[in-house]
Amino acid sequence: MSVVDVSTNVSDGIGILKSRGVTILGRYYSSRSWKRLTKYEAKLVSENGLKLFTVFEDDGDPELTEDQGVHHAQMALAQAQQVGQPKGSAIYFALEHLPHGYNASHIEGVVRYVAGLRSVLNGHYKVGVYSDGVICAALLDRHLAEFTWLSASTSFPGTKDFYASDRWSVAQRKVDLDWDGLSVDTNEAKNEIGAFSTGVTPEHPAMGMTLSADRNGGDAARIPELIKIGSAPESIRKVQGLAKKTMAGIGYVYPRKSCAATLSHFLREAGIDIPVTTGAQNLADRLRNIRRWSRIANGGQQPGDVGVCFSHSDDVPGADHIYLVISCQGDDELTIADNQVQGATHTRYVSGKGNKTPTEYFLRASGSTLRLQPTAGEVEVDEGIWPDEATEGLPEPFMDDGTPRAVD
Questions:
Q1: E strand or H helix at 296
Q2: Which of 51, 255, 266, 309 has the most CB atoms at less than 10 Å from its CB?
Q3: Peptide bond into 317 cis (omega under 30)
């Protein structure tokens, strides 16, 4: 049995994992969309014969209160249900407390946090913990965790002794290994660690269409209309008006943090079946994992592609801008449509020239091979363009399948 954990989407890396003999894959639940397991990813992993185990982690150092445990368990529970994780399997929760780990003085606080977890999971999912030896041992002794995942930090309190006790379910060994571009951590594991397989189907019925139908050229066939809508001032204003209403519904004034809402309305106006989405990384994930758009490296972009700008800052994780490419003037200069200029297209540079976030990659509808010339309606604007903004954590009005998200 070969067990690894990976903090990013592995939809394009399953072949790498299988070639290395991986049988169980650890993936994440989180408030950070770039990190968390998706429904379609879980389906692909399961279809390829690998099992999954899941861990909730935002920063691994939560406030040690019952309320925080409740909050984290609520997020983990919602994401587990969305993915289709079967009841009776385990959800681990990360408690690292870097750089030195927890010690005996933290145990009572951890107990309060775990009490909050258990009150929400309520037996539907077994509780696991990813931590050092002191915490793993304490939670097993108090019967507050069914599974323990010992971190790779052997210098942390109690970790060597707990490993020697053989009470762990999973023991992390080597971290941040480069497997053909996929960052992987390796683990030892016992036979039972709360792993599971899921039978989630990749249907996307938001507008009466399914993924299989879309694969038959559906989205690519709509790209000419998408470019037309994104080129004309009248249709740009219409789309921005729709996005303005979306953002008002979650308490934001347009165009603030409105790039994803704007692009999702562009796509929907062109007949591309995507839920209205407010987070840039969420929208990129939906295009890639649900609509099956292809990732395109910088320099290979073309009209109708979607540009995804990614912030590498630790305090602003995930994509912080997403936009529609209208035309390309070489490898760097683009004409785009987004929320940043009202009623018109404008110039943006792949490199980030002009105090913008560099574009990380592009997404393209499957089968699209368009090479179109610039269209009427373009306006170059160098001053007064709305800035790039992080959209991480914005409330999403719709689930991946297009159904309205329940409001607390």
A1: strand 294-296
A2: 266
A3: no
Same domain for 44 and 170, yes or no, is yes
Q: Is residue 341 part of a domain?
A: yes
* Secondary structure E strands in 122-267: 126-131, 147-150, 170-172, 177-179, 182-189
- Answer yes or no: do 16 and 71 share one domain: yes
* Residues belonging to the chain: 408
Give the global pTM: 0.53
Please tell me whether residues 216 and 335 are part of one structural domain.
Answer: yes
The 10s digit of each residue's pLDDT in 367-380 is 533 333 333 333 33
Report the alpha-carbon distance of residue 322 to residue 34 in Å, rounded: 14
Q: What is the mean pLDDT of residues 379-396?
A: 50
Does one domain contain both 271 and 358?
A: yes
227 and 137 co-located in one domain: no
User: How does the average pLDDT of the chain come out, rounded?
Assistant: 83
Q: Which of 8-12, 228-232, 318-322 has the weakest average pLDDT?
A: 318-322
CA end-to-end span of the chain, whole Å? 42
- pLDDT score of 393: 57
Place of tokens 């009005």: 397
Whether 387 has a pLDDT exceeding 80, the answer reads no
Domain range enclosing 261: 211-364
* CB-CB contact of 305 with 381 (8 Å): no
Q: Which residue in 163, 89, 108 sits closest to 149, CA to CA?
A: 163
DSSP assignments along 47-100, one per residue: HTT-EEEEEE-SSS----SHHHHHHHHHHHHHHHHHHTPPTTSEEEEE---TTT
- Give the total number of structural domains in the chain: 2
The answer on 115 and 26 residing in a single domain is: yes
Final residue before a domain boundary, out of 189, 222, 237? 189
Instruction: Give the pLDDT score at 390.
Output: 56
Residue type at 270? A
